[in-house]
Specification:
This is ATP-binding cassette domain-containing protein. InterPro entries: AAA+_ATPase (IPR003593), ABC_transporter-like_ATP-bd (IPR003439), ABC_transporter-like_CS (IPR017871), ABC_transporter_ATP-bind (IPR050166), P-loop_NTPase (IPR027417). With 243 residues, the protein is α/β, with parallel strands linked by helices. Helix content is 31%, strand content 25%. It folds into two domains: 2-66 and 139-241, P-loop containing nucleotide triphosphate hydrolases (Rossmann fold, 3-Layer(aba) Sandwich), CATH 3.40.50.300; 73-136. It has seven helices and nine strands; from the N terminus they run E-E-E-H-E-E-H-H-H-E-H-E-H-E-E-H. Bound molecules: adenosine-5'-triphosphate. Adenosine-5'-triphosphate binds at residues 13, 18, 36, 38-44, 177, 241.
């Protein structure tokens, strides 16, 4: 049973079409990476799928019970402690759930009383992940959550997401333009057409997330980038679309 179904999605901003004919589905417990060049419409797809914006065309069906989102910027409340930031999605105070979510995101009990301004970028993103996990969602949207982090930290955060997805069994749509990341964390990779005209194709990396070795991940990335036509435009940047 699919938990998320997008059918024939199209979208325009102020009359300018940015997406057409987007059809994709995510199964229960499945982590799907959505890759595509900058400006191809990946974030717009995530926002439509999560119901933050209404598509100009097409149909969205959500069969999951609860979702959370993790963005590139952690979007924390600066005036609130880490514990309050993590607990924000809960209807009532629940320190046990806050502590459990913090632990799953690699935070220590003493971090809970700190404030966002005292934290590094990586720590803030851990808080954002803990906030996403706290209400035990069965679906999480990740919109380039680790793009701003350095390579080693990125890797640790990816491992954390893989472990959390396995433990909590959530499904996810994970948006990224980093192919290593897509191969490492997902069950299936969807490639968005460079101009947002549909999903150009899908690839299923061998094995399951968490079991793929670094050299295999790197070799597959090289293969995709240099030998697989599906990925030919992945590094194209539509600079006209950029502010
Ligand atoms: N709120 C908005 N108003 C107008 N145009 C927008 C808006 N949001 C996005 N766009 C435009 O829609 C297109 C797709 O943007 P989107 O952010 O979905 O792409 P993306 O693939 O996620 O890009 P990136 O990887 O750079 O985040 C771009 O041309 C962008 O400039």
């Amino acid at each position: 049973m699919m938990q998320l179904d997008l059918h024939g999605i199209g979208h325009s901003y102020f009359g300018r079409s940015v997406l057409t004919g987007i059809t994709l589905a995510v199964a229960a417990g499945e982590v799907v990476a959505l890759v595509g060049p900058s400006g191809s419409g990946k974030s717009t797809i995530a926002h439509i799928a999560a119901g933050l914006i209404d598509p100009s065309e097409g149909r969205v069906q959500r069969r999951y019970s609860r979702h959370a989102m993790v963005f590139q910027e952690p979007r924390l409340m600066p005036w609130a402690s880490v514990a309050r930031n993590i607990g924000y999605p809960l209807r009532r105070r629940d320190p046990a759930r806050v502590t459990a979510a913090a632990q799953r995101a690699g935070l220590l009990p003493e971090d809970l009383d700190r404030y966002p301004v005292e934290l590094s970028g990586g720590m803030r993103q851990r808080v954002a992940i803990a906030r996403a996990l706290v209400a035990e969602p069965d679906f999480i949207y990740f919109d380039e959550p680790f793009t701003a982090l350095d390579v080693a930290l990125k890797r640790r955060m990816q491992d954390l997401v893989i472990a959390a997805a396995q433990a909590a069994r959530f499904a996810a749509l994970f948006i990224t333009h980093d192919l290593m990341e897509a191969i490492r964390i997902s069950h299936r990779i969807l490639v968005l057409d460079a101009r947002g005209h549909g999903i150009a194709g899908a690839r299923v990396p061998p094995g399951v997330p968490g079991t793929r070795g670094e050299s295999a991940i790197f070799a597959l990335r090289q293969h995709y980038l240099h030998e697989d036509p599906l990925f030919a435009h992945i590094h194209d940047i539509d600079e006209r679309a950029r502010p």
